[in-house]
Amino acid sequence: MAVVEGLAKTALVQELLSSPHQMLINGEWVDSASGKTFTTYNPSTGEELGQVAEGSEEDVNRAVAAARAAFDHGPWKETTPSERSRLLWKLADLLEENVQAFAELETLDNGKSVTISETVDMGLAIEHIRYMAGWATKLDGKHLNLSIPDTHAYTRREPIGVCGQIIPWNFPMLMAAWKIAPAMAAGCTVVLKPAEQTPLTALLFGKMIQEAGFPPGVVNIVTGFGEATGAPLAAHPDVDKVAFTGSTEVGKMILTASAGNLKKVTLELGGKSPNVIFADANLEAATGGAANGIFFNHGQTCCAGSRVYIEKKSFDNVVGDMANIANNIKLAPGMDDSCEMGPLISTEQLERVSGMVDGGIKAGATAACGGEVVSGNGGYFYKPTILVDTKPDMDVVVNEIFGPVVTAIPFETTEDIITEANNSVYGLAAGVWTSDISKAHKAAAALRAGTVWVNCYNLFDNHMPFGGYKQSGIGREMGVEAIENYLQTKSVCVQL
User: Fewer beta carbons under 10 A from the terminal one: N or C of the chain?
Assistant: First the structure.
């Protein structure tokens, strides 16, 4: 622990790292039913950060029972929309007051730059909670003019119930906020299962939820592994809805597990997003935008622009400039002020990324830059990589790598590139770079993706829904669409 204590700057993080990490069930911090723990690691060094309670199906059952009781019988059931709104505002204020501690903890557990953790992850999380706090008082039904004489009919918008929420390791705190805030605004109760690689900010979030004054059982946090905690949560008969962010493979398993009681499901899954650069674009902006589109968050982003299509006449120049950007990115531990890119999350992810790149090169691709593990520091670092000379059926072109690796592919006509860009089982995001406004709108309409950025990439706003077409998911995060995921409509018809 000595190394970690030297890295952490805030007293709150020092205290958290020196304490046992229990789970939150029914308003109490408890050990797992089995008493087992697991280790969470600092990906910048490979060293242990702490021991975390290892949950099981018994812990999931306890948490669901608490959430069920809080929804059906507890004070949460009688909480007014304005009271829910005030609680969410208080929660956002508490996160803002402790933003540095959250950012440090996120960086130590996840590896990303502490500056990014504070400004992007925590900044967006805080504003998302405030955005959803505003919706709590605006969830109206409507009067219905029926064709039946002497009737009065209307609809009610009611919370869906107990929600199982399973979040990933790439944006742990932001994903927790994306899930919990709309559920709370709608009046639901929650059992949250954070990724086993990054459980710490979720647990600190739980402490802030308690301090804000949410009643016991409204938010429960169960830590552990997918098979032991995520699977029974997704299949639990007393869970009314499950929300999952993660890989498409696991998303399919979640969907299957939910069939027992036909619970509602939203899934935000993988991507292999195309980023299309036309020759008439501002190439300096497009090059920088494409680099940011893949190298942001170490490429561990579901909407990463991991297929860059460049009009042939500009291909060599754009690839050369992107390679120059990549070669000058400073790789360092996330707590280092000089860090521009931190490590990958784990040894498993490092092996996956390096294995896929090595396989692509063996199949005929060429690394214009990168393509190497950074060794000697104990962390899980991989150089930003651009692959050229690829073929459409290569693994590196077809499948999600989830690392700082992009395939750069030339194209000649607009028709060809739209067809090729859409040739994927995924449809989460896409980018278009052009100075021709007509071409931009036509391309945006033709691309089969949940978000299309034009002359930008990775811009998010809480009012703009985010989610995927095809195998990139079901439902949307952010915007009013997100809170709709946690509501159901009741029709009431009165004979007068």
Answer: C
